[in-house]
Hints:
Structural class: alpha+beta
CATH architecture of the largest domain: 3-Layer(aba) Sandwich
Radius of gyration: 26 Å
CATH topology of the largest domain: Rossmann fold
Helix content: 10-25%
Oligomer: single chain
Largest sheet: 7 strands, mixed
CATH superfamily of the largest domain: SGNH hydrolase
Strand content: 25-35%
Number of domains: 3
CATH class of the largest domain: Alpha Beta
Amino acid sequence: MMLRNHQPVLFCLLLLGALMSARGELVLANFSAAQPIKVMAIGDSITDDCVYNGAWRQYLQPLLDTSGYPFTFVGRNQSLSIGSFTKTSHEGYCGAVIAPSGVLTSPVHGYAGTNVYLLKIAADALTNATPDLVLVLIGANDIGRGRDPYQVATNDMPNLLDIIFSNAPNANVILAKITSLYNANISGLNYGAYATNVPIYNAALQAMVNQRRALGQNVSLADMFSAVKRVAMFNSDNVHPNTTGLQAVAQEWFTRIQAITITTNQVTSTLIPGGDIWKYSDTGQDLGTNWSQPGYDDSGWASGAARLGYGDPAVFTTVSYGTNASNKHITTYFRDSFVVPGNVTFTNLNFRLARVDGAVVWLNGREAFRTNMPTGPITYTNLASQYTFVQETPYTFYPTNIAVSNLPAGTNLVAVEVHLFLANRTSLGLDLELIGTGYFLPPSLSIASAGNDISLAWPVAGGTGYRLYSSTGLTAPGSWAIAAATVQTNGGQYVVTLSPDAVTRFFRLQKP
């Protein structure tokens, strides 16, 4: 700050991003190189070294390391340290299931085969370490050996969560949908015979996770089913992902870790989770185009959790197709909303859509994209372009990225119209997940005269954790230092009062 003609002249600079460290922070705690995030990878052979040393963990390490996440893997088992793969601890166990009894006849990592189940393994592991983040990829052996998918998802897995949270109450837990089991055969066991139970298990697991989140538990879901493509990303047994599939597993974990992380320069947020509650109109009426507008009155619509549809064992909420099974409603309408915080700008929306058969997706009354639908104007009677085949296609969440620049703060609307391929179609289905990426808006730094002094202020709302930094020049990045001034709180503002001197100073807000 410098006096010119007896008037204080001051320059303010707000920088958030490139000039700030890309330090990641899990929502519940702060971490640093001196206090790294303790990550426990727990699961079956897809996590263990049974097929590939380091499995997907060897590919997750560089994603976290290069993105500013100070972390270490914790666990009692060790992979071989090879090249850049140096964080080798884990809790993977070949052949593991969730609940007793174990299905093996030979021991694994010191456990008798009948004891290779996670309810026991996790309880033991958590007496040795208290992780901050637990990544759980389990269930292929449970479902592949014919266990009831509902029992596994809604009884066994919740019991595992209870064990984790009772030992590590402040941990974040990410569960994973299991990958495909179509045509799967391992050690002479026909896992493929139970492949149709995989979507049922995954849908039940998704519903359980949403229920736990509604109760305040820090649990979320990774979609390995959609991430790891059948055939192309599997070994010949169609159970274990190949190296490409393991990279896809690591990338999916990384995306979900980003979604529960606050960083100084980026926001990744799950705006609409899979299995969310949607409003829907299944009356068979032609609603035209007004139904997709934010101001449309949908108070008379029914509501229910996804997956929504009919004729599908994975459906959670059954919608009506009318009174004639040979002449079903061609179009069914769905609406959901999400909230954009005032201090965030989203630049990309990743719509992940699972549907039968075709769909048009609208965002705030404007068409965002369409899939398996003809070109041109869409009406109620338009049929989907192609038949959605059975097996896995209906349950895969296919991504569509939409760049956005003017997404308003507050409530935003996603509307989806689903069209059948034929009027006598036996099934209809919809589920959608929306992930937004963008950046935080820095708090506004204001300047005002206060008698002979200068007052700098920024809002408490959205400004907590920021410090005022100053510099006498902009050409030397290392010249910034925390301003030696007392911060007071007044009327919802942080306020710093400075006396001018004969030096020009620049100011910015940043987090240490």
